Amino acid sequence: MLELRNVDARYGAFQALFGVSMQVQAGEAVAVIGANGAGKTTLLRAISGMIPVTGGEMTMEGVSIPSLAPHKIVETGIAHVPESRRLFPRLSVEDNLKMGAFIPAAREKAAERLDYVYGLFPRLKERRTQLAGTMSGGEQQMCAIGRALMSGPKLVLLDEPSMGLAPVIVQQVFELVRRIRSEGYTVLIVEQNVRQVMKIVDRAYLIEVGRVKASGPASELLDNDEIRRAYMGV
Ligand code: ATP
């Protein structure tokens, strides 16, 4: 579904990704793990067109995406749930969700999509008029995921959905990810919480200083001593 071949990305003069190659097949859940500053967020930003790709090739279902404007990338079926959720705190839950349906194809079906998201996450329906900024961290993450689903995506990019949440809420967020996966969405998830995320993905890529250092089935990476020492504290 998504394919990256030798992708470079930079912030001005600073190169953050070096020749990154990866694939995500339809229906898979794939994790991107690595230390702080490794380039995980940058990778998701490059895929969704928030920062320019300066080398290599990237395709979504065969369509080249680096030259597309971000909203056109959304139209290819990619939705990004950014780090720290980035909700509009002074807008209601429902208005935040509607913001996710900004591409024309989704706007036409916004009412239908809203019902679908409320069906999936009844808590959001209960809280539809509440200001998003007053919700709990876990609820805000649910709202951010719901907003991404409003565009009718095939592939959902999740950037550290467990960040800043209490352990019990972290469990609930991973459960949400499992749910959207069972709904048929393909998932690419960045997580620091390696032990937890490996339980819900098929495969993972380890990124170090902007490069893919290792990749493979989650079970295989969990057996890798170096990964266990560096990222799981064992
Ligand atoms: P974390 O888990 O800490 O968010 P990460 O793996 O997601 O880490 P990135 O945020 O992708 O890392 O950062 C990769 C590198 O790019 C870092 O060296 C970071 O300082 C740099 N970087 C990130 N954003 C910018 C920016 N807007 N301008 C310049 N450099 C940036």
Which hetero compounds are present in the coordinates?
A: adenosine-5'-triphosphate
Just give the CATH class of the domain at 1-71 and 195-234.
Alpha Beta
- Portion of residues within helices: 25-40%
Q: Please state the second-level CATH architecture of the domain at 1-71 and 195-234.
A: 3-Layer(aba) Sandwich
Q: Write out the strand line-up for the largest beta sheet, numbering strands in chain order.
A: 6-7-8-3-9-10
Mean pLDDT, rounded to whole units? 93
Shape category: globular
The structure class reads: alpha/beta
- Beta-strand level of the residues, as a percent range? 25-35%
**Backbone CA Rg:** 17 Å
Protein architecture, described:
The chain has helices spanning 40-47, 70-75, 93-99, 104-108, 110-120, 122-126, 137-149, 167-182, 194-197, 218-222, 225-232, and strands spanning 2-11, 14-24, 29-33, 53-60, 63-64, 78-81, 155-159, 186-190, 203-208, 211-217. With 234 residues, the protein is α/β, with parallel strands linked by helices. It has a domain at 1-71 and 195-234: P-loop containing nucleotide triphosphate hydrolases (Rossmann fold). The strands form 2 sheets. It has a 6-stranded mixed beta sheet, sandwiched between helices. The chain has a 4-stranded antiparallel beta sheet with strand order 2-1-4-5, with helices on one face. Helix 7 (137-149) packs parallel to helix 8. Adenosine-5'-triphosphate is lined by residues 11, 14, 16, 34, 36-42, 192.
